[in-house]
Amino acid sequence: MTATLLHTDNWIQFDVHGLAEQFWNNTVDGLAQGGIYALIALGYTLVYGVLKLINFAHSEVFIVGAFATWLTYYALGFRAGTTPQLPVFELIGFLLVAGVVAMVASGAVAVLLERVAYKPLRDRNAPRLVFLITAIGASFAIQQTLKLIFGLNQQPQIRLVQPRAVFEIFGASVTNVYLILFVAAIVLWFVTDFFVNRTRLGRGIRAVAQDPDTATLMGVNKERVIIVTFLVGGLLAGAASLFYLMKIPQGAIYNGGFLLGIKAFTAAVLGGIGNLRGALVGGLLLGLVENYGQSLFGGEWKDIVAFVVLVVVLMFRPTGILGESLGKARV
Amino acid sequence: MSLRERWNALSRPAQWAVLLPVVALVYFLPVLDPPVIATTGTDFPTAMFDVARYALVAVGLNVVVGQAGLLDLGYVGFFAVGAYVTALFTSPSSSLHKLPFLWTLPLAMVVTMIFGVILGTPTLRLRGDYLAIVTLGFGEIIRLLADNVDPLRGQRGFERVGADNAGQPLFTHATQWYWLTVTIIIAVLLLVGNLERSRVGRAWVAIREDEDVAEIMGVPTYKFKIWAFVMGAAIGGLSGALYAGKLGFVNNQSFDVVTSMLFLAAVVLGGAGNKVGVLLGAAVVAYLPMRFVQIAKYNYLIFGLALIILMIFRPQGLLGARQHLLAYGRQAYQRLIGRGDQISGDSALAPEKTGGRS
């Protein structure tokens, strides 16, 4: 009797052959997915670096952006169904509009969250667990608001860019969507890195991350720095949501941010939370590992792979691969 | 405060004398079916069972979150394990040897305790928010396992859970389930109360207040954290087993993160670390959506907003935690400071000392 439970073939299957066969496809897929993780992870990392706070509601900041993108498409006259054939410049224009709207929406939600939920707690010197519970509450509230407005189901998919293979690499075709995604993630990462490491405001962010009291004494406006940090995280999440909808057009659903958020957080921790480079490395790595795992164990184990990675990393190297270092960045 | 002081001033038998009628009233609530309190959408005894189930979960989670100060976002995982143990050993859908339902309750507790050790051993070296996220991950892993591992039957689930050989469930009336659950809650409360007043409980409070200091003072923090985790897990598993027995059906649909958050909301809302508080919190979280069906659609939204507002204005919850730091030493302490034992309402959820940002 027990034997049938234990000796069933269906516990976990290893498909090494499948992995070998799918390796390059998985790599391409994983890098594209990893780009999205990296962009969201940047938001977690920035806020964590400055406030030592896991902004649990960041996943909702992201999904608000996804809805904003979808609504913009809709408002621009696109409907579900066939992908329109647009001239390249027009297409880029539409994508830019949607991207800007998504970024503004996400950025606004992030800043609003900071002002309404976190600021009062900071004024009261609340402990970190209180912040986390507030973040959970905020996450709930935003999610449910979206559910009330848009309903339980996914929004019908609106595609502006039809995926089409651009070139092949080791037999794995790279679509235009993946290419855009990957390049955009890298570019946005460089912009963020430049902003944090080379600009005046970025220096403020690093100063507050290092030592808020001393930074305040040195004339850094701490409150402004915090708002800017949330804003940058929100903008990046908004951009990520645009690319996410490009890859997964049916992705606008009220709870669609949750899993992605956890995974992005995993990516941030994997690379070393509070570390910009870590967010990129962690994001890409998680995307890869997840896709390899998917081939090895089967599609339904994809999410478990991510969670197991999270647990294992936190067990053996809680500071991540590159370490926590926003505050320790070069001056 | 004065009410609490007066309550503490009463002798044990006097406290019991006050409590007994209250307990009796709680027992007979479903029978009385009072007009204003009775739920409209759900049948009242079933609603009361749900409230009791939440209360049991809240008491268990309170050990972890309230007593030891470990934020566990994956508590529903233990609840699920308990439910699945019962399902595997009683449902005709499973190929395992059948046991009588009541036997599966202790079995579910033992299995969840083992799970508590398995999950706690690696994770409890982490602190604070990292621990919270990892437990969240573990909760999800358990849910996904229920989805994907074939013997756990995914969405098809187990039918006639808790039925005996003749195919009859243990109780047919929800009221009987409610009575069983309330009895178990009282037993668990007594047990947890004793644990709180023991060396273990003091160690938990010490860990909650300041882990480093506790460690320096000679408290083996890691060991006691696992203890808290395991105790909480056992109670969660017990509640899951009861839930499975009452419902008679277990599949993978009722163990998502949202449920975990509701459990946590019950504890935080009522006041982490305060047993009466968490019972109140559980009652609020479970009962209000069933009583006011109109708002049921909005209940998660309301909980979310309530959590934000509560954390700003009353982070310790509706009823804050209090702790007798001196076990059996109430009178001694009163003599020492000349008044009631208002030592501290502090917890992991109380204001942080300034300057100590780390």
Give a structural overview:
The complex is a heterodimer of chains A (331) and B (358). Chain A has helices spanning 2-6, 16-51, 58-75, 88-123, 128-150, 176-198, 200-210, 212-217, 222-247, 256-271, 276-297, 302-316, and strands at 165-169, 172-175. Chain A is mostly helical. Chain A has one domain (15-316): ABC transporter involved in vitamin B12 uptake, BtuC, CATH 1.10.3470. A two-stranded antiparallel ribbon of chain A has the order 1-2. In chain A, a hairpin with a 2-residue loop joins strand 1 and strand 2 (172-175). By secondary structure, chain B is mainly α. Chain B has a single domain (2-337), classed as Orthogonal Bundle (ABC transporter involved in vitamin B12 uptake, BtuC), CATH 1.10.3470. Chain B has 14 helices and no strands. In chain B, helix 3 runs parallel beside helix 7 (174-196), helix 4 (75-90) packs across helix 10 and helix 7 (174-196) packs antiparallel against helix 10 (221-247). The longest helix of chain B is centred in the middle third of the chain and has 27 residues, at 221-247. Chains A and B meet through helix 1, helix 4, helix 5, helix 10 and helix 12 of A and helix 6, helix 11 and helix 13 of B.
